[in-house]
Design brief:
By secondary structure, this protein is mainly beta. The protein is about 5% helix and about 40% strand.
Length: about 475
C-alpha cells in the first residue's frame, strides 16, 4: 500500500543534503567495476495467471505458490465521498495460485471455502509479510476488508500454508473440504497486526521488521476528513516456531520504549534483502522506505539488523544514501567468488525519489504536483545497486538495464532453487544462470501515473547472472532540491 498520508510540508531536500554530507566520498571514478553481469531475459506470461502485486509467495522446486495481493493497479486517492474506489473489491485476489514455471501453467484454488472467515480475509489481503521455512509458508498480517464488520483493517493474524499440500490439491480430485488442510491459522495476536513490513526467516528464527497498522478505509489526508488510524510499529519482532503442532514463541522486540517515535525506525514499504556484513555474517538490510516522521519524504539511508544468531540483535543506521528505488521492489544480493569480501545488492525499478539522467550523469528529482497532491515519488525504470567493500565503505551504482513498463513497485524476485532468499554465491556459477524471476508488480505508463495509468502486471522476467566482469555508472550525489512549500 503506497498510501501517501502526509502533512503539508517538505523536508526531502534537507534530509538528503544531510545524508550526503554525512557520507562524503572521494571524487567518483568514471564507473564501478562489477565482478558479474546482470541481464534480463525475455518476459513471459503464464496461462491462467492474472496480473498481481503486493502478494505473498513460496516455492517448491519449479512451482510457485502465490496468495494475496491485488489484481488491479495503484490504489485510488478518492476522498470521503468515494473511498470505496480506493481499494475496490474487484481488485482482491481471491485465489491461492500454484504456478508451474516448467510448464508455464497456473492452477487456482478458491480461498472462499476457507473457514473461519478471518482466515479467508487474511489470505486475500494485500501487503502481507511472509517467509518460508522448509515446506511451510508463513503469512502475517496484511490490509483488507474484514467480512465480519465490513471494515478495512490490518489483520492480527498469521497463517501457515503447507506448500506441498497446495501442490497436491491442484493435481488431485479433492473436494472443497480438503482445502482446509492446506492452511492453518494461528490464534490472533496483536504482534502480528502489521502491513507493509518484511518477514525474514534465518536459521528458523523469524524477524518481523517495521511496517504499520492501518485501520479503516484509506483516504489521502489532508484532502479528506480522515477516519482511519495509522501507527508505524517502529520495531523488529522476533519469534520462533516450536512444539507439535508448531506455535509461535516470542522473543523480545527491539527497539523498545523510549526508542519508539524515532524517525530512524519510522518506515514501511521498503526494499529489503538478506545481505552480508563486513565480518561476513548474514544481516538483514532495509533500503530506504516510506515515510519519514511528520513528512511525506522517503528515507534515503540503509538500516541493518545484525547479530541474527544472537539473543539480542542490533540495529545500525548507515548513512550511505539510497538515492533511488526507495519503495518496495525486487532485490538481489551477490557475493562470493570474484566478489569475495564484498556484497552487491541490486534494486530493480519501482517508485523512487530520483531518476537517473544517463546523458548528464546526474540524478533528477521526481518531486511534482499531481492530481492527488504533491508527490515525492515517481515510477522509474532504473536499476541501481549498492556494494559493501571490505573496508566497510559503500559505493552506489546504476546499471544500464531498464525495467520494462516502469515495473518493480510491489513486485518480488522469485528465486530459483539454489538461490533462496535472493542470495547468489558467484563461486557456484560457471555460465549465464537464471537465478530467479521478477513477477508482477505495478506497471505504469508515466512517471506520476495515477490509478488509471497503472495496472497489475502478469509477466515473469528472468534475471540472469553471468560470472563475467561488467561496468556500471557511478551513482551521482543526491542533488540539493529546492524545498517546495
Amino acid at each position: 500500500m503506497i498510501g501517501r498520508v502526509r502533512p503539508a510540508r517538505w523536508a526531502l531536500a534537507m534530509a538528503v543534503a544531510a545524508v550526503t554530507l554525512l557520507h562524503a566520498q572521494a571524487p567518483a571514478a568514471p564507473s564501478v567495476a562489477l565482478p558479474f553481469t546482470v541481464s534480463l531475459g525475455e518476459a513471459f506470461a503464464v496461462d491462467g495467471l492474472p496480473g498481481l502485486h503486493s502478494y505473498a509467495f513460496g516455492t517448491l522446486g519449479d512451482r510457485v505458490i502465490v496468495v494475496g495481493g491485488r489484481t488491479t493497479g495503484l490504489h485510488g486517492f478518492g476522498t470521503d465521498e468515494n473511498v470505496a474506489g480506493n481499494f475496490p473489491d474487484a481488485g482482491v485476489n481471491g485465489y491461492l495460485w500454484v504456478v508451474d514455471l516448467a510448464l508455464r501453467r497456473a492452477t487456482a484454488i478458491p480461498i472462499a471455502p476457507f473457514e473461519p472467515p478471518l482466515l479467508r480475509d487474511q489470505l486475500s489481503a494485500t501487503n502481507q509479510e511472509f517467509a518460508q521455512d522448509g515446506n511451510t509458508l508463513y503469512v502475517v498480517g496484511g490490509y483488507g476488508r474484514d467480512s465480519a464488520d465490513n471494515t478495512f483493517k490490518t489483520f492480527p493474524s498469521m497463517t501457515a500454508i503447507d506448500l506441498q499440500s497446495a501442490i497436491d490439491r491442484t493435481t488431485a480430485a479433492a473436494g472443497a473440504a480438503a482445502m482446509t488442510r492446506i492452511a492453518a491459522k494461528f490464534p490472533d495476536d496483536e504482534r502480528f497486526r502489521v502491513t507493509g513490513g518484511a518477514l525474514f526467516q534465518v536459521n528458523h528464527q523469524f524477524f518481523l521488521a517495521f511496517g504499520q497498522v492501518f485501520d479503516r478505509a484509506y483516504t489521502p489526508a489532508p484532502r479528506a476528513t480522515a477516519s482511519f488510524t495509522q501507527i508505524y510499529t517502529e520495531s523488529v519482532r522476533m519469534f520462533t516456531m516450536s512444539g507439535t503442532p508448531p506455535a509461535p514463541i516470542w522473543q523480545s522486540s527491539f527497539p523498545v520504549a523510549p526508542a519508539l517515535n524515532h524517525d530512524f525506525y519510522h518506515r514501511r514499504d521498503f526494499p529489503s534483502a538478506l545481505t552480508i556484513g563486513p565480518s561476513g555474517a548474514p544481516r538483514i538490510s532495509v533500503f530506504g522506505g516510506v515515510f519519514r516522521m511528520g513528512s511525506p519524504d522517503p528515507h534515503v539511508d540503509v538500516l541493518h539488523i545484525d547479530g541474527l544468531n544472537q539473543p539480542s540483535p542490533t540495529l545500525t543506521e548507515d548513512p550511505m544514501p539510497v538515492a533511488m528505488n526507495q519503495y518496495v521492489c525486487p532485490t538481489l544480493t551477490l557475493t562470493g567468488g570474484a566478489a569475495a569480501g564484498r556484497a552487491f545488492t541490486i534494486l530493480f525499478g519501482g517508485l523512487s525519489a530520483f531518476r537517473y539522467d544517463s546523458a548528464a550523469k546526474q540524478l533528477v528529482s521526481n518531486l511534482a504536483q499531481t492530481d492527488h497532491g504533491a508527490d515525492s515519488l515517481g515510477f522509474v525504470d532504473d536499476i541501481s545497486g549498492i556494494v559493501l567493500n571490505p573496508s566497510g565503505a559503500y559505493d552506489g551504482f546504476v546499471l544500464g538495464l531498464k525495467m520494462p513498463g516502469r515495473l518493480g513497485t510491489s513486485a518480488s524476485l522469485i528465486p530459483r532453487p539454489g538461490f533462496e532468499n535472493g542470495l547468489v554465491d558467484l563461486s557456484t556459477l560457471t555460465a549465464p544462470t537464471t537465478v530467479g524471476y521478477i513477477f508482477g508488480g505495478i506497471a505504469a505508463n508515466a512517471l506520476h501515473a495515477g490509478a488509471a495509468g497503472t495496472r497489475a502486471s502478469n509477466l515473469f522476467i528472468p534475471v540472469i547472472v553471468t560470472p563475467a566482469a561488467s561496468n556500471a555508472a557511478v551513482m551521482p550525489a543526491i542533488p540539493v532540491t529546492a524545498v517546495t512549500p
